[in-house]
Amino acid sequence: MSGRLQGKVALITGAGNGIGLAAVKKFVAEGAKVIAVDLDITNAEKELKGNDSVIFVRGDVTKEDEVNAYSFLGVEKFGKLDVALLNAGASHPTQSWLETDVAVLDKMYDVNIKGPWLGMKHAVAAMISSPHGGKGGSVVLTASVASLYGQTEFSPYVASKWAVRGVGLTAAQEFGALGIRVNTIQPGATRTQMYMGSFTEETRNEIESANVLKRAADPSEIANVMLFLASDESSFMTGSTVAVHGGQTPT
């Protein structure tokens, strides 16, 4: 199937690398116009140079004035906003709880919770201001497999990603009456800069051996599911948490 997002306008945060960049490429290939946002958008600009379906924005998901501005950019440039993939996130190296500085927790909540909370607030407002009034809109939040269980030496990240699920479930109830769907995706180990930087090779091997496929995902494999949730193919899905973790189901 092709053109699965034909005619739609999408906002994607965390679009500079990894899963976010993979999603930008897939959304554009399926017909969408995309507002691609990241603190460092250079890599995406290089890889998609000359593609007039993408507007690149250097933006901070924790700054409300910036979030408001880029959330309405699709409306300003393309006349509407249909999809918001609120994917930007931060991680941290594993460390004993007792040795973790509270600044790590502050950063995780600032980026991983405040970011999608603000993104939801302003993206939904942009959808409502569109000619369709929000009807048919789709919001996809990126949580983590870590939002399905606990993980030692990773408490700030785990706490923040559990909270993302709460944001998604609440938003699905609040905005359903407007015809806006909200779903959350839980990626497992994925070969991104953030994943590689958070864990040692030994720890990555342990993580990957915990899933039944015994490997990490390619970012495009996660982006495939994001594409489905953004498209009208998932029109009866909202309030769902979709695990894409290769069968990693610890308790």
From TrEMBL:
Report the Pfam families cross-referenced here: adh_short_C2
What PROSITE patterns does this protein's entry cite?
ADH_SHORT
UniProt keyword terms in alphabetical order: NADP
Fetch the PANTHER family from UniProt. Answer: SHORT-CHAIN DEHYDROGENASE REDUCTASE (PTHR42820), SHORT-CHAIN DEHYDROGENASE_REDUCTASE FAMILY PROTEIN (PTHR42820:SF1)
Q: What is this protein called?
A: Uncharacterized protein
The species is Jaapia argillacea MUCL 33604
